[in-house]
Amino acid sequence: MTETLAKPITDREALPVELVDAAGRAVGACPVAQAHTAPGLLHRAFSVLLYDDAGRVLLQQRAAVKTRFPLLWANTACGHPAPDEPVVAAAAVRLAEEMGLATALTEVGIFRYHAQDSATGRVEHEWDHVLIGRLDAEFLRTAAPRADPAEVADYAWIQPEALRDAIADDPGSYTPWLLGVLDIAEEAVRVI
């Protein structure tokens, strides 16, 4: 008899998120779905942006089944830490789940944003921790992202300036937080 180990099914909309005040201090918790119901509750989130040795960034196109901003291009991975969960640890788990990748991550900044998805009626109101990481050329010669199709429709590498031009030319194809993530990440990369 052969047993198949299936990946456990998780209702990501039922997972808890940490609510925060205007200064980013924890003030409670609620399910993901509730935090993203209009008008939206301010909560902790993270956005990961990976770079390669050529300075390109790795983007993902969100899967069609996403409840917020489906099929739009976004940073490499994103999500929400559970209440009291360290942001870097949660981001590493989500990077592995979404893109099948692991690398050291560094938090480089935070920004707050509010955006409504006109297609789904859902809302993002997030205190977003931005993390960056690198994948070196040797790693990329032997491995590629292994994107989970339930999370990611496609992925692409692009130079940051080309990405800025693409967002300016067609902002409706990109998530509303991507430019904020890119700004913080690029400022950190210039300093490092």
From TrEMBL:
Residue span(s) of domain Nudix hydrolase: 41-180
Positions annotated as active site in the UniProt record: C78, E126
Compartment(s): Cytoplasm
Enzyme class label: isomerase
GO molecular function terms listed in the Swiss-Prot or TrEMBL record: isopentenyl-diphosphate delta-isomerase activity
E.C. number: 5.3.3.2
Comment on bound cofactor: Binds 1 Mg(2+) ion per subunit. The magnesium ion binds only when substrate is bound. Binds 1 Mn(2+) ion per subunit.
Needed cofactors: Mg(2+); Mn(2+)
List of residues binding Mn(2+): H36, H43, H80, E124, E126
Residues involved in Mg(2+) binding: E98
Reaction(s) catalysed by this chain's protein: isopentenyl diphosphate = dimethylallyl diphosphate
Transmembrane segments: none
Pfam families hit by this protein: NUDIX (PF00293)
Function: Catalyzes the 1,3-allylic rearrangement of the homoallylic substrate isopentenyl (IPP) to its highly electrophilic allylic isomer, dimethylallyl diphosphate (DMAPP).
Protein name: Isopentenyl-diphosphate Delta-isomerase
Protein's gene: idi
